[in-house]
């Protein structure tokens, strides 16, 4: 398997995340400006907020359409095969040769 963990390794997903992020930043900025503006700029702020909301929704819907997380659901109770041929679980059972006798020669010295 080839894993590439660079942020821009998948340009479509990177673009969708940028779109959603810009929308969120625009919405927060409009709310911040709207709290301090004394003159009624209602229509401009409303259109900017709705534009940011549209960007956020487009980014999220686009991500869901591309990634389809509902089809690739990972059940954490079922271990994935790692491709090394060790699909069976190994029991942890210490061998008698390596076992240390309890309270044998490791007594504390005061």
Give a description of the structure.
The protein is mostly helical and 110 residues long. It has a domain at 10-67. The chain is 47% helix and 0% strand. It contains two helices and no strands. Helix 1 (11-36) runs antiparallel to helix 2.
Notable characteristics:
elongated, 110 residues, 47% helix, mainly alpha, single chain
Q: How confident overall, as mean pLDDT?
A: 80
| Beta strand % | under 5%
Low-confidence stretches: none
Distance, first to last CA? 56 Å
Q: Name the structural class.
A: mainly alpha
| Approximate shape | elongated
Describe the largest sheet: none
Helix content: 40-55%
Radius of gyration: 28 Å
Helix-strand topology string: HH
What's the tally of helices? Answer: 2
Summarize the structure.
The protein is an all-alpha fold and 110 residues long. It has helices at 11-36, 42-67. The chain is 47% helix and 0% strand.
Tell me the layout of helices and strands.
Elements: H1 11-36, H2 42-67
């Amino acid at each position: 398997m080839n894993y590439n963990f660079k942020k821009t390794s998948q340009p479509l997903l990177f673009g969708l995340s940028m779109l959603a992020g810009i929308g969120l930043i625009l919405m927060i900025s409009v709310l911040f400006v709207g709290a301090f503006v004394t003159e009624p700029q209602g229509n401009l702020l409303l259109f900017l907020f709705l534009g940011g909301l549209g960007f956020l929704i487009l980014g999220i819907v686009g991500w869901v359409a591309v990634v389809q997380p509902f089809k690739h659901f990972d059940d954490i109770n079922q271990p994935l095969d790692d491709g090394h041929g060790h699909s069976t679980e190994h029991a942890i059972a210490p061998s008698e040769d390596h076992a240390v006798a309890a309270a044998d020669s490791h007594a504390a010295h005061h």
